[in-house]
Amino acid sequence: MTALASVTSSANGEAKAMLLLSVLLLLSQAKGAHPECGERPIFEAGPQYSRITEGMEAEVGEFPWLVSIQAGNEHFCGGTIIDEWWIVTAAHCLYSGDLEPKDLSVVLGTSDLQSPSLEIKGVTSIVLHKDFERSNMNNDIALLLLNSQITFNDLKKPICMPRQPSPSTWSECWVAGWGQTEPDDKNSMGSDLMKVPMIIMDWQNCSKVFPNLTKNMLCAGYENENYDACQGDSGGPLVCTTESDKKWFQVGIVSWGRGCGMKNTPGVYTLLENYSPWIKKVTEVQGRPYNSQIMRAPSMQKPKGSQAPKFPEPGGPRLWFLLCLLPYMLFQAIFYW
Ligand code: ARG
C-alpha cells in the first residue's frame, strides 16, 4: 500500500512536472518571436541621453547588431550581425577588385572603436550580390562569413529581418555609423558611433528626386533637417521598430546619396526585404545556412502578396507536438491528482 502510494505519487509528481514543462514551452512558443533578435537590453535599461551628419552619439548597447568592417585596422564600412556567422553589408564597400577575406576584420560589440578591448573577428568568405551594378548601385548588398561564431550577449545581438514591411507601420527609425560627420571632410570620421533619426520616404516621391531609383532601394530622410548618413556609414543599417513591438528590424543598408546632409535630400538605402531569398540561398550554398530562428519576425508584419519570402516556420512541428501533449498531460494530472 505505501509502496503503491509512493509509485502513484511519483507518477503524479512526474505528470505535474511534465504539465508545468509543457505549459512553459507552449507559452514560449505562443509568443512567436525569438527572443534573440532586435533587442538592446543595456540601452533599454539605462538612462538615455542624447552627432553621421547632424547626429548624436549612440549609447552603449543601443545598436548591438552594428559592426565596423575594417582593412588594415581602419574602419571603412558598417555592417550588421544577422546570425552567429553572417554579417550583411553593402556590395559597393567590397567591390574594389582585389579585396580578399584575409584583408578584412570585423569589430563587434562596441560603439567606441578606440576601446582598449575590442573584439575582432576574421572573415572567411565575401559574397557580393552577383547582379550588383556599380553604375546605378542596384543590388547593393553583400555577405561576410566570419571565421568563428559570434557569442551573443547584451553588446552583440543579431538584428531582426523584416519579411515584407510596409514603411507606414514603423514608429521609429534610426541610421547609425562611424562615417563622416562633416560632408566634405574625410578627417571627420570619429571613433564614437553616431546616430540620426530617419523617416522612410514614399518611393514615388523619392524617384522624383532620384530618377534612377530602382525598386530595390528605399529613401529615408528627415524633413527640414540635415540628418543623413555619409561616407563611411555605408553597409550599416537603417533600423526601425513599431509601437507595439520593442524589437528592431533592419529595413535598409546605407548605400548612396547626393552629397550628405543636404536639406530635403534623402539618403538611399538597399531595400533589405527584397533579399531574404538571396540571403537564404547564399548562406546555404556556403554551408552555413542562415539561422531562420532569428530571421522569424513577429506577427505584426503582414506579408504583402505572393512574393513574400517563404521561410520554414521554426518551431511549427514542435508547437503541434506540445499542443497534442498538453491534453494528454492534463488528463494524466487530473486523473492522478
Ligand atoms: N556611399 C557612402 C559610403 O560608402 C554612403 C553614402 C550615403 N550617403 C548619403 N547621403 N546618405 O559610405
TL;DR?
The chain is α+β, with helices and mostly antiparallel strands. The protein contains 7 helices and 13 strands.
The global form is globular
Instruction: Estimate the helix proportion, in percent.
Output: 10-25%
Which strand order spans the largest sheet, edge to edge or round the barrel? Answer: 8-9-10-13-12-11
Structural class: alpha+beta
- Provide the succession of SSEs: HHEEEEHEEEEEHEEEEHHH
N- to C-terminal distance: 17 Å
Largest sheet features? 6 strands, antiparallel, barrel
Low-confidence stretches: 1-11, 17-34, 295-321
Number of E-state strands: 13
Average of per-residue pLDDT values: 80
Question: What integer value in Å does the Rg equal?
Answer: 23 Å
Ligands and ions found: arginine
Number of helices: 7
Strand content: 15-25%
Overall description:
The protein has 337 residues and is α+β, with helices and mostly antiparallel strands. The chain is built from seven helices and 13 strands. It has helices at residues 2-30, 41-45, 91-94, 203-209, 276-285, 292-295, 316-336, and strands spanning 56-57, 66-71, 74-81, 86-89, 104-108, 119-128, 142-146, 172-177, 194-201, 217-221, 237-241, 249-256, 267-271. A six-stranded antiparallel β-barrel has the order 8-9-10-13-12-11. A six-stranded antiparallel barrel has the order 2-3-4-7-6-5. Helix 1 runs antiparallel to helix 7 (316-336). It is globular, with a radius of gyration of 23 Å. The model is unreliable at 1-11, 17-34 and 295-321 (pLDDT under 50).
